[in-house]
What we know:
Helix content is 79%, strand content 1%. It is mostly helical. The two termini are 22 Å apart. It has a two-stranded antiparallel sheet. It contains 19 helices and two strands.
Amino acid sequence: MLKAIKNSYQHTVYACFTGYVVQAIVNNFAPLLFVTLAAQYGISMEQISVIISVNFGVQLAVDLLSPLFIDRIGYRASAVLAHVFSAAGLLLFAFLPGWMGSPFAGLLISVMVYAVGGGLLEVLISPIVEACPTKKKEAAMSLLHSFYCWGHAGVVILSTLFFALAGVENWKLMACIWAVIPVLNLIYFCLVPVPFLEAAGEESRGSGLLKNGLFWLMMLLMLCAGASEQAVSQWASTFAEKGLGVAKTVGDLAGPLTFALLMGAARVLYAKCSERVEITKYMTASGLLCLVTYLLIAFSRVPALGLIGCGLCGFSVGVLWPGTFSLAAKRIRGGTTMFAWFALAGDLGCMSGPSLVGWAAQRAGDDLQTGILLAIVFPVLLLIGLAVAGRTGKKEEKPVKSGSPSLS
C-alpha cells in the first residue's frame, strides 16, 4: 500500500484535492463565527472587515514572495510548510484571543499564521496538478478547484451540526477538530510523488511575464474572479443572520452552504463538458449570471429571494477562478512564477471584494445589501476583461506540453 502511494500520481492528485479542502477550512471557518466573535470579544463590523483583509492580505504577500523560495526548496517541502502553518493557525485561533489582553490582536495573529498556509496552498496546488502526467487539463483543473467548494460545504455542514449539538459557545473545540485535517494531509504529502512544473522561454522569468499584455489581462480576470466570489461568500452567513433576520442555523445552511454546493456543482459541470464548451464563452455566461445575482441580493427585501441570490451567486462564480487558470495555461508558459502571480491577483480580489462590502456596509448603517451593490463593479470588470480575452483568443494559442515531470 505504501509503495503504491509513493509511485502513483493519482495519490498526488488526491493530496492536492485535500489541500484545497484545507484552504477552504482556513478561509471559511471564521466567517461562520463573525457574529459570535463580535458578541464574545466586543469587536465591530469594521474590525471583522480587517480580519478578512488580513487573511487575504497575508495570502497575497505569500503569493508575491513564494517564487523566491518555492523553486529552491521544492514543492514537497513547501506543501509540508503550508499544512504546518494551516494547522498551527487554527489552533491559535481557538486559544490565542483568550490568552492575550486584546482578543482582536489574538485573532489577527492567528489569522496571519493560517493565512501563510492558505497562501502557499494557493500557489502550489494548481501547478502540481498541472505538472502531473494526466490528460484533460481543463477538466482536471476545474475538478481540483471543486474540492475547495466541497471543503467549504463540509465546513458549513459539520460546523453547523456541531454548533447545534454542542452549542456555538464551544466553537474552540471545533477549530481544534478542523486542525486535524492539515496534519493528516501533511503526512500524505510526505509520501506521494510531487512533480515540478517547468517553465519555458522568456515567460519563465518574471520580467518576461510582466511584458506580456495577455498576462495582465489574466491578472485582471483573476482579481475580479476572487472579488466576485468572496464579496458574497465571506459575508453570506452574517448577511443571512443580521441582514435577513433568519436564525443562525438556517442562515448558515441556506447561505454559505448553498453557495458552496452550487459553486462546486458549477466546477464539476464544466469538468464534464469542458471539451464541448469554449471556456471564454462559459465564463462570460457565468459572469452575466453573477451580475444578476448581485442585483438580486442587493435589492431583495424578501429573505428567501436574498438567500436564493446567495446560492446562485455560488454557481455563477464557480468556474471563474479555475477557468482563468486554464485559459492562461493554454497561452502562457510561465511555470511557478505565473501561478504565483495569478494567486496574488486572486487573493487581492479575495481581500478587496469583502473589504469593500464591509466598508460600504459600515457607512450605510451596517447595511450589507448596500455593500454588495457597490461590489457589483467586480463582475462588470470581469465581463469587460472576458470580452477582450475573447478577441485575443482568436489568435494562435501556445500549446502546453506536460513532458516528463521532475520530482521535488
